[in-house]
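#dry-run=false #mode=assembly
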Amino acid sequence: MLTRHKGTIGVTLAIVWAIIPLVFPIGDLSIEGRRMLAIFGAAVVLWVTEAIPLYATAVLIILAEIVLVSDEAIVHLSDGFDAPKYASFYGALAHPVLMLFLGGFFLADAAAKYRLDRNLAGVMLRPFGRSPAAILGGLMAITALLSMFMSNTATTAAMMAVVLPVSASLSASDPLRTGLALSIPVAANIGGLGTPVGTPPNAIALGRLADEGIRIDFLTWMALAVPIVIVVLLVAWVLIVRWYPAEADQVDVQIGGAFDRSRPAIVLYATFTVTVSLWMTEPIHGVPSTIVGFVPVVVLLTFGVMDSDDLRNINWHVLWLVGGGIALGTGVSAAGLDVWMVGLVDWSSLPRIGLLFGLVLFSLALSTVISHSAAANLLIPIGVSLATASTIDLDPAMAAVVIAVACSLAMSLPVSTPPNAIAFATGDVATRDLARTGLVLGALGLVLVAFVAPPVWDALGLLP
Amino acid sequence: MNRLAVLIVEDEAEVREALVRDLEPLAGSLQVETADDVVDARAALADIVAGGGRLALVLADHRLPGATGVDFLVELNADPATAATRKVLVTGQADHADTIRAVNEARLDRYIAKPWDPHELISISVAAVTDYIISEGIDPLPYVRDLDGQRLLDYYARRASDR
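#status=ok
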């Protein structure tokens, strides 16, 4: 009943928000700008309330853009308006950045299918010994590393399945149980921001930037983000070890087993190695990661490593959600809505540092309560427009990256991210545990991303 | 409130209460209902459905006043709404023919002989409801704590995504 009400209210609100700019003139905003404002307003309401599924809002945006502002619009367009081709809006669903992301999905799903993820985790965990603090650190490092290439959610579920029997073997009052159940989602959330394929907000940032003609290669993204991952992860580890001191002297974690040596598994290992190597060496060979990303798709399907069932199981709805966000950014920019919105405020009085602080804080706050991808879909186009406006001394690439990173660092509630929901479901973690860890890490992220990282990136000349 | 239910069909009050007591560890996640004969069981099923729940598991005695436990299981198997419900006989009195009928016509999942071992009862019930959740594509997270969390999370890892 509650969800049905939420649905009705959300949809009604979205319609009202959409109708106002369609009917009433708004300042000097063009008719196309008003139509995009209607689409943007409805998208805000629908992505915040989730009155309809996130991916449904994404496809609704694309259809609305085609009928309202494309060259095939069913309504009259202003004479001087350079309407984007309608195919370009559909094209968002097969944007090159989505092909990179699809390659990541193929590698991750195939790794899970042949249990490469668990087996690698087993090998990597061995050097960490058996002391609780070391094991906790090892689990966090491995979870973060896996979630750079797999979804944060799948990594958390797989690693939590490994941790459950360990927790069950501990005494019911041992705080280590909470520490273990908390460490996995925290590490997965943080790890996801480390590579372009780690989590959807990264793809949304790269997609928007690509449409502005700015390309950030795989290695550059890692150079920007991995130091943040390492610092936040280390602090998270120290916090969890101190807040949840283990009573047990030793813990024994069983992960993985013998590596699969079947032919498809060998093809997967080779494809994984080659793809990741090519992603990391783009500066040498110059083949964009968006093209390399399609290689595993082709190879894994050709050699039967992945079959039609696996193809059906790909999380297409995530790709479409990102595609909807990219299409929204394209439309906002094509209709001139971005310039108009940025012009509403006299930004020149605001120093860059204040602007970065505001963007990061707002991204963190919004992503804590709504989907990370939806938050990135709404905020990245605005951030990039702000940065491209000539009066502001902010690099568009910097704006997009800080927003994407901030969205990933929002994790202080069970609803903030699916990994948190998994931890909560084990019963070993309370909302309070997630809240205090998430708030401290969020505050750390805020300082790092708004104040520390940008000058370092500038000094190292990392941004294009 | 709970969406998945377990139904115990047993005519002897003492035995029924013992089963409920042994299933206590699952009562936090599952709605445990009881019935003393098949007529009562049908009413209990209707109540579960009316409350928005789904019958995940039936633990039925065979010899009951009126229709038998096996009759009820066959009936459940014939109805598409409950065909996937996991079916377990908890009995000492089903003969060879009854048991064959339960396997062939009700697709019996397990047979627990009386007197039962409480640990076996729990482990069979946990495995049965976990199977039901996975085969029916039900969101597994609410059941991770009390059922087979490891299998449920492995299953979740394959279907879940970032959002």
